[in-house]
Design brief:
The chain has eleven helices and nine strands. By secondary structure, the protein is an alpha/beta fold. The strands form two sheets. A seven-stranded parallel β-sheet has the order 3-2-1-4-5-6-9, with helices on both faces. The protein has a two-stranded parallel ribbon with strand order 7-8. Helix 3 packs parallel to helix 4.
């Protein structure tokens, strides 16, 4: 049995990760400042991981084999910009620092597709579509920037550590299981509203990912991590776009600067590709809005 510590265990993605890892046989330690960690966790503990001493205490107390770091202020502009940047970057540093120095063997850090820079007020155009891990990054707000710093923090510790294997995941717009039944998403809109209003989903390039698929990726990555080069970054998205029409037309209608690059996106193809995760991990998303949405 692998003891796996999940930070942000009561969050939209964290809840599914806790359940998935527990079902896969992990002994899950859930850490979150708010209640809501699923009962599948062996332990649920409130802890302020922005405090380095408290983070060390948590690692020393539970001695996990692996850490999945999801804790963050997860929505852009939901707090003051300085608070978002300070909180998210401090969390990433503290978790990587404490994990690597207390003998944790595997660490996964959650990043975000927003590091690409879509939605920038001054305009944005992709270098190419579909977007993969080699696409240039261009953060323009505190959330984007904090996630890029989290990736770089992870990579720094990956270069420095001989005993801890690191990776980062950029999960697309996470949809929790209850949101398929009509609960509001992190943007405040329902999935049906995002489908019916292309201007809402189009700003984020119609990307999405079922939280359970994201959890499956994390489970596979934890297993394969020691075999991989430390410091890898993976996009994780659904195999289709959150749009009723092909992105070749839907995307330029919302972001005209994508017209040339979107032309190659045929059928239901998404704007982000998870080909690297499929190639290196054997993972592909299994769930689609077409199969999960209760009312279409």
């Amino acid at each position: 049995m692998t003891r796996t510590l999940v930070t942000g265990s009561a969050g939209r993605l964290g809840r599914s990760v806790v359940v998935s890892l527990a079902q896969a046989g992990h002994e899950v330690i859930g850490i979150d400042v708010i209640p809501g960690t699923p009962a599948e966790a062996a332990v649920a503990l409130p802890a302020d991981l922005t405090d380095l001493g408290e983070t060390y205490d948590v690692m020393a107390r539970f001695r996990p084999d692996a850490v999945v770091h999801l804790a963050a202020i997860a929505t852009p502009f939901s707090r003051a910009e300085g608070v978002i940047f300070r909180t998210n970057t401090q969390l990433a540093f503290n978790v990587c620092e404490a994990a690597s120095n207390t003998g944790v063997g595997r660490v996964i850090v959650a990043s975000s597709p927003t590091v690409i820079g879509y939605g920038a007020p001054g305009g944005w155009a992709p270098s190419y579509l579909p977007i993969d891990e080699d696409h240039p990054v261009a953060p323009w707000n505190a959330y984007n920037l904090s996630k890029l710093v989290a990736e770089q923090t992870m990579a720094t510790f990956a270069r420095a550590s001989r005993t801890t294997s690191f990776a980062a995941v950029r999960p697309c717009f996470v949809v929790a299981p209850e949101e398929w039944a009509g609960a509001p998403t992190q943007s405040g809109h329902t999935i049906v509203e995002r489908l019916d209003r292309p201007d809402v989903a189009g700003v984020s390039l119609f990307n999405y990912l079922d939280a359970r698929d994201a959890s499956d990726l994390i489970d596979v990555l934890l297993e394969r991590l020691p075999e991989l080069p430390s410091g890898e970054v993976f996009f994780a998205g659904a195999a289709d776009a959150l749009a009723r029409e092909p992105l070749a037309g839907a995307l330029p209608a919302v972001i005209p600067s994508t017209a040339a690059t979107a032309a190659g996106l045929t059928g239901t193809a998404p704007a982000f590709t998870s080909a690297k995760a499929e190639r290196m991990l054997g993972w592909t998303a299994k769930r689609s809005w077409r199969t999960e949405l209760e009312t279409q």
